[in-house]
């Protein structure tokens, strides 16, 4: 009996050690990027994070016991870590920096042929995107500001015919600088996607392309601007991996099919988790300073997150309306939080945006979405918020975030979003 019991204990201990080793192994090389924050359940706060390892492989599970949140230097236990739902959308601005010299035509075609599938994958996975474009060779050829219309983006690319490139290097650093100066959505994550098969000019070199930039300066500027750089290029070209690694980006082999690259890329960007913790703050601050630690108290990421940011968008989960209805319950906790938030910030203004599923005519849904937005406004006014601080707009069925072919998908589309328009 004793020996049998000892054997069972040993097996249990071995199993526990194996599980612990598995957890520790899963955290080795873990990289987290904070993309957004959800305060709709205040004082519970959700940090929306992207998770992957050093090889840019996505992670399927993170144990809450392995992480700790630090808010303003104070440890907060993690309540839960859950895969993000489609209602918690993340705005991301993508600016493609495309080399248009002679050897690039096949790769430009690859972007054109796969960009629609790419943005569809983003949309269905919860990313609210805009697309911008910089075309470059030894000089900056064209600059197009971000748009929500993928057809417009394609119209820019369809005019491109790759030519030139008689010296080996091109001016990718100037393209990155131009990308950083785009008119970004202040509430969006900022991403540059560089597509080139050539090395780049740096300051002090001779040749057709001139720049005052070098690798270290560009890395510093990207980090300061909080812009991530992803490079689709030839493996081994100097500098691209360093710039990507230092800005929480990644490098992809340009010789791989573009459908595969863009699918892998969208999967990485949308492998999102909601890390929940409870704050001790009595009222929501304008910004929160958080870091995330692993089991060994190593800092995985530290970030100052602005809460009051023009363009920041909130989806209130309890405002998923029944079909053909604009009725709100007498008490909506999340709207009470918003009302208190606005009461503490008298200059803050918001726009309330109503959305519907596709049941019924387009005109009926447009009217219904406007009624839903007005219903939310009326609730906030009853809570003491002045009418002139709240604008409303209805989008009807024109901006779905999920499929309309299932009841669950339609329920997600019947929603109201609140956007900060003035701090």
Give an overview in words:
The chain is of the alpha/beta class and about 425 residues long. It has two domains: about 1-305, Rossmann fold (3-Layer(aba) Sandwich), CATH 3.40.50.410; about 315-420, 2-Layer Sandwich (60s Ribosomal Protein L30, Chain: A). It contains ten helices and 18 strands. The chain has helices at about 1-25, 105-125, 150-160, 170-180, 215-225, 240-245, 260-270, 335-345, 360-380, 405-415; strands spanning about 30-40, 45-50, 70, 75, 80-85, 90-100, 125-135, 140-145, 190-195, 225-235, 250-255, 270-280, 285-295, 300-305, 315, 350-355, 390-395, 415-420. A six-stranded mixed sheet has the order 8-7-6-9-10-11, with helices on both faces. A four-stranded antiparallel sheet has the order 1-2-12-5, with no helix packed on it. A hairpin with a 5-residue loop joins strand 1 (about 30-40) and strand 2. The longest helix is centred in the N-terminal third of the chain and has 26 residues, at about 1-25. The radius of gyration is 24 Å and the shape is globular. The chain starts with a helix and ends with a strand. Residues about 1-10 and about 15-25 have low confidence and may be disordered.
